[in-house]
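WARN no homologs supplied; continuing
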Amino acid sequence: MFEGIAGAVAVGISIAIGVASDRATKKRKKAFWDRYGSFEGFRGQVDAERIEGVRRASGDIAAIKVVRKEYPYVSLAMAKRYVDELPA
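OK structure emitted
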């Protein structure tokens, strides 16, 4: 009996987290497009020299983390794309 209730509660919590996550993702996407207009608009505002320096010193993952920290409206996918497209 308690297993059924616990399972139902777990499903309910999972759904609530999924809905909240979806809302946050949509809000972040909207904020990104409102602020930058496009990926090119975003790219033009990034301090490329700083990110390239972090990438050389600490690698791609560290550079992606810096992009995400300094530009909070940027998704993980956009931050990765930005770092991947930097000159080697």
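Residues 2-36 form the longest helix (35 residues).
OK
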